[in-house]
Amino acid sequence: MNNQELTELMKVTAQDAVVYSAEEHQVLLDFSLDSLTKVDEILSELFLRQQEQRHADEVLFTLSNVFGAYTGEVFIHHVGGEWYHDEATPDAPYICVRYNGKEFPFASLVYHQIAKTPSASLRNYVAQAMNNAMQ
Asked: Using CA atoms, how far apart are residues 122 and 33, in angstroms rounded to an integer?
């Protein structure tokens, strides 16, 4: 997959987060930095559901990628960067945003927020990532 195809895929996937949030949580996402607070609230709700009944691996994977794509698009829109598909480790490829020599694996953070660490915050992570990216 070339970079243009990856970029388009991630934009479409980010739109899936917008649709899912509206349909399943009645939350409107607008790609603003403040919208990440709303995403944090959705992820907290998903964590609670995970505690009641474990999400299927496919669902957790999809939610992680959808909200990771949304977060990445917010970051790219407000800071810059581009999507990067790292295949250096064939058994564990991942997609991240690269900016100013740094990588930001947003889907991984989403996964941990839903599955393990509800106290994590995408909004705070992005704020810190923005500070780190500018150094």
From this structure: 10
CA atoms within 13 A on the CB side of 55: 19
**Cβ neighbour number for residue 48 with a 10 Å cutoff:** 11
- For 48, 133, 135, the CA distances from 128, given in Å and listed in that order, are 26, 8, 11
Name the token pair of 14. 């980010």
Residue 5 has φ and ψ, to the nearest 5°, of -65, -40
Tell me the pLDDT tens digit for each residue of 80-123.
999 999 887 777 678 999 999 899 999 999 999 999 887 889 99
What is the number of alpha carbons within 13 Å of residue 49 lying toward its C-beta? 13
Tokens representing 69 are 């794509």
Closest CA to 50 of 40, 62, 59: 59
End-to-end CA distance of the chain: 30
